[in-house]
Design brief:
8 copies of one chain form a homooctamer.
Chain A (H helix, E strand, L loop, with lengths): L2 H12 L5 H10 L3 E2 L4 E2 L3 H5 L4 E3 L5 H12 L5 E4 L3 H10 L4 E3 L4 E4 L7 E8 L5 H13 L2 E6 L14 H6 L2 E6 L4 H7 L6 E5 L11 H8 L6 E3 L5 H15 L4
Parallel strand pairs in A: 3-4, 7-8, 7-9, 9-10, 10-11
Antiparallel strand pairs in A: 1-2, 4-6, 5-6
Helix pairs in contact in A: 4-5, 6-10
Chain lengths: 252, 252, 252, 252, 252, 252, 252, 252
């Protein structure tokens, strides 16, 4: 339900064209699609600039199937994240026209053709961080942005980053994906004026504590202007960059 | 040293007007001011869009004094954060013209008069979060932004937030400052399309673990587009919002 | 042994009809069934309002088998929780008349036909929380309550919750099952006057720490009247709601 | 704003007696009192069965003062919790008619004279847990309940608990306040059929981890029907017991 | 090398019958058996009252094989603990005369026939704790003690423990094996005067944190006279009880 | 109430000399002294071999005073532990004949003159561990044991321990008090056949985590026969050694 | 690019033989090899004394393949660490001439024949620590050092260490690899004057917390001169020893 | 006792010039000085290359006094670390000739005049890390090394480090002292071939967790050749660097 429709509805009520129970029912039922096991938030795109996204881990197969069937009848972009191989098979059977981005573990349907907005760069510390970086990159691209990928430029060999300084300085938002001690965030943050979204990865072992060390390290970066999302949360990093970039391009 | 000066310097070297040792010395010495105990990064404003900031806790008084004396001879904005009462007295003695924002524990000198950029809103869950929120607000204001303050609208009484939805939807960046379970971040993030910077506070007790629970909770928000800074890090929240807002206003 | 039987026994002793050793033996042996490996607490239903429940993980198959054989000879309700597929096969072979609730991983025998007590609502944040919610729901139902299921109404799209406010406000006890940051607990708790039992789930990843973040977050909810059970402990949530509901309905 | 007033308001709007902007302004402004630094949720009593409560730690004195002045003009019960000695002095100066419960660190104004509802028992493991127990007891009493106090009956000398079994079995809700390993919760929970609210205290040292051990231990109690609130959260324990008790007594 | 042999050796050296290098070589080489990958401490039985024990997890199969071959040529008791099925097969192939205690995951060779010393009781909270309890029991029995097993008498149904009070009060050392909140330790410790060795198990889930909660809880027991070993460390519990019992029976 | 008295009481009841309510009242009231705020377990000495002990931290002064007054009228040993300077003053005023052991922070009254039982050794790693060691030593001495003190023999200079090997090997129970990495426990445990009670201290800093590191380290000692009590819990260490030693000396 | 080449390049630029864009391009591109997914730091050997090392976990097979192909065309030593069986197969197919050290999970190509530098000893506490020790040993050997292996000399039987004291005292750097409580580090550190690199292993269970306890314990060793690397980080331990040893042998 | 004296002693024994009890007494008593409360390890300098060091926190004043009196009669260097102001006063009264290094919180007596060994550099991230850095620097200097101090060159402004690259590359051991995310360690480690000793500081707040984040981050540095000491352990960092440097200079 768009904002305009909402205003119309209120006026109908005021004019007595619909009564108490009708307006309550309309407002209550419209903005999501009730599948019993799930209630798809079809209104989110308008409200938040990000469409409904299906986080797949832990879903009972029958529930995932219901969601696919509902998605098949919707018109907006629908993204499935953290798709396992088994789930991918199930989803692609229900939605054969969907695109499957295997490295990113993402499946998307109803992809909108559009001009991409320039302004997002995604940087990784190592090669092992690429899966998470791709989750961020595909997410941002599906939402209408162009993404510059700068991979394997970690702080252990800082000179590998320098050729990309120019690209970084042109970005409206930079996503830094790194594991281990995550020092790359501080190095990048100290060289640019764009907001930096840090995505800690669980790459590492032992005292890395499944990425908690990287997460905590990034939160303590001595460079201001860095904010952080959950471990391995490439999706969240991509969305944050997208929201910044669309504001810079003047979208509401 | 501005970018233009840097280019000039390289050309002088190329033309043989300065030799190897001169150019190395210049590049090495220029962009910071060496006080022995400290090396002020005078170049940061140009590079990162944020001036050098002095984080005060743990500083030996003599070192803080040296930094004040150096700041007195500089022309750019200089911000002291987390100033204790004792340190405030010391700093204000050295820099009597400085402004002291007591609730925010900030002291600033060489404040630039300028038109403020619209676009930042700062929201708190409770009254006890205001100190941290003020650190964010003063930081963003000193850097040239106008800030909308929306305080004490926590998720326990969600209707208190609704009158401000319009203000929130106009913002380019929203800083949400909350303690305890930090649910306000999810509620706000689910209603707007602006990027949300979450600042967890250490307000709470027991299983709040000095703010760690709030921090972890915010990192796990089921709303995408939320990124998080360190506990009580109002300064970092303010800077992130500032960097986004200046990009939206077309600054490099 | 009912309370009446206990009083009778004490009087027999007082009257000299049974001697020291007899009363001690009777009291010591009656209220549980000793299987060697296990001592089934057959007295719990009378004492606590909840029958003996078999927590299955880690049980050696032979021990589980003994317990099944004992249960076959008992008359009261007997619930097996956290049943793995292998264990389900073993139990159903021993107790072919038992009911198997697969999504809830519960098996029950000697189910009592009875009028259900109204008054329990179970709410989930997402679709992935349904397994835990079903453990709570089946538990409460087996113990004689009617359960209202309200699934996938998480705080990211708060409007999905509103149509159910009326149902929630009629409940005597509300179980909120959620993962990630668990903000739904605060939102629900802020809208109703029923006691809220929060069940954190391990749905999430990274800084979710296997549900610890959700657990800690719920414990710090800024809404009073929320109490919390262990991670994924749908059973405990169901029992707490049951104990409240039966008190409201006047049971001792 | 009561429910009846809300319905009236909607009808006025429908009849055209108030227009769009008026209804929005009314709904937006009515249910809380805006003090700038704070927004008192005056509507909570009706909505949640618990009046607005002021959590005092970390409040800037000027803000606390504003809240007191507002409270002086309100008619409903107003409770200040976790009051420090300094804050107590400030509050009592503004609200000289208020009651100060020092052991519980609570101050209350506008206390309602009413018949107390029977049905709450509060139990402590040791003498050192009494401060937290009193916070629970005073809270429940202020909200209209009668409280049975059973103090220092910890599991190390379990026979001290037995004389109180009868009292415990009559309760509608039992609050167990204990530190260290919190075993009292399991012992009590195994003997009664009332819902048990466990309040871990920070009494202990070393591996007690400021109460975290007690909290975790209680969450893992092998007795079902136990739910837990935050460490030292006597207030929360008291409210949960109150919400259960009022439901049992047939209040909405 | 016995103490007598050691004294002889020193006298030979003093009398000049052996020289510097000889005595050093003898002392250095005698008390263990060097297998390259392992150095079996053949002297431990004399020194510590406990023979060399082989902790099996993580051992490379070839190394385990070497140890078996060495054990085959030794005369003292040799215990392999935490034996996996694969390792059991390997060990039993090398040492076909060895005894395999499957529930305890222990294999032993060179078992000494001897009169068992009375005085050890082993208690479990639930049926799922039996594996760990058996590790303790078999360990203590192999070292020459008689063990009273009292299983499934957890604190949720405390009356199941009472028939065994007499047995417990006769014990010289009591090993309490329990998971979840471990309250059984406090209950037992409050009823007896024997030293209690608490063995936390990893039975539980969620906030049990793999047994850390049980461990911490037991360390905070409000009953003095309880000491604790590592999670699931039945072996350590058995050895501690054995060392106490043999002292009581007058062994050095 | 001694065991004999208990038997008498039961026979009176059987003979009809006392009735239902009388026996219940007697059993319920006898074994502790009810002070309202506290219920002194006067029966513990008989039951557990350890008298009632007053853990002082967090006690409200009035409550401590009541306990002192009660103790003045009791005949058995009464120990106050963790006494702060303020509390010491209060206690000594009420109980002027009490003994104050300042380094151990213990006050004791009604000390029994008796022959001390040989057999306990207490060892510390460093000088900073002595406060905790003294708590253990004074506790064990007050309960009737002779204690050998061996202080400052930490593993960094292992030769300092060797002169005491003979003393250690004669002990029935050894208490090892150490901070930092606690390696002394492993070294001592590898040289003796007595049970070792490890007391981790909070001596250290940073990654010592207030003693948690020492505690965890000791729990993971590669030497079997070591059991552990809470951080800085000298009292618990002393009691465990006492319980072992009295068993060795044939006490029940 | 060697240092000499770098100086030449700068002079060409100064002499005008190369221009601005050329020098930037050269500096930017030379010191690493860009494979798209990876940027091999071919300059590290010169800069850091350690060649580029490929950390294998988490690498997408295609990426690992690209790295192998690049390595095939390089001349310097290239080490793959933490190679899984599957990865080993892939790497050895691409680089059939490579050496596979299975216990150490290392594959190396372009191994340099050279005289080994004496001076490194590697010590383990138990047999289960050997995998990690071998990672350290092979690493140090591949980089040109001779390694003395002293395995299974843990602190539980300290006499097993003494025959090796002479070897240890001759070493320039000692790597101590141990699990559980890691006491061996303190014992070794207290006997030698060489710097000790401690490598905690994840050998242990329960409160060992996957090696965190060993790590923390080692960091708190009461012996100075011990420094620590990550859990199971044999590679890091080997490199640190190598860097020390080559300095002692006068390498830059 | 030097090694030569030890050999002499053994020969006296062999020749019958001293008997069993004499040699045992001599060996047992010589290498430390027994003060009752403390046993000074006077032999450590010879054995470990580091003299006995007195760690002051938690010492009872009388004990510290005894140690001072003993130190006054010794001839070797004696260092007191972590001296509080009160303790400094006490020590300087006993040892008026001692040197007090206030910023480093170190007091030293019997300082040896000697030529300093070149080769140690100490680097800090910020000004607030200087206290810890000075502890490292003074320690290394007292033990005979010359120290290059490079302060406030943190990774947020990496250009401040470059002028010191030459100094760093000449060092035999580099101590990096940093707080927050500790990224400086990775940056330095990626530029030099000297072994790097990382000293995390507790500078930071919130998710810094008292330095644990910095510690964990440094342990996960993606640069090999970095080893880490405890939080704020400047002393340990200084000793490790000293042990490396003296090996490079050919000392045993």
């Amino acid at each position: 339900m768009s904002e305009i429709e909402l205003i119309k509805l209120l006026q109908l009520y005021k004019n007595g064209q619909i009564d108490d129970s009708e307006i309550l029912e309309t407002i209550s039922q419209l903005p999501y699609k009730d599948l019993g096991c799930a209630k798809l938030d079809t209104h989110r795109g308008l409200r938040c600039g990000v469409e409904e996204v299906i986080f797949c881990p832990g879903k009972i197969p029958e529930h995932l199937q219901s969601i696919c069937k509902a998605a098949a009848n919707m018109t907006g972009l629908c993204i499935f994240t953290r798709v396992s191989s088994d789930q991918a098979q199930l989803i692609l059977k229900e939605l054969p026209e969907a695109n499957y981005y295997k490295d990113a573990a993402i499946i998307a349907v109803n992809i909108v053709e559009q001009d991409k907005l320039e302004g997002i760069a995604i940087v990784t510390g190592g090669t092992s961080d690429i899966r998470v970086a791709e989750e961020a990159a595909i997410t941002a691209e599906l939402m209408g942005n162009r993404v510059e990928r700068i991979y394997d430029v970690g702080a252990a060999g800082i000179h590998r980053l320098f050729p990309y300084l120019d690209t970084l300085r042109k970005a409206n938002a930079i996503v830094v994906v790194a594991g281990m001690e995550g020092a790359l965030v501080t190095v990048v943050g100290g060289l640019v004026s764009a907001p930096v979204i840090a995505v800690p990865t669980s790459v590492g072992y032992g005292a890395n504590l499944g990425g908690m060390t990287t997460l905590l390290s990034m939160l303590n970066s001595c460079v201001p202007g860095v904010s952080v999302v959950n471990i391995d949360n490439g999706f969240g990093g991509g969305v944050s960059a997208h929201l910044i970039n669309r504001k810079v391009h003047g979208k509401k």
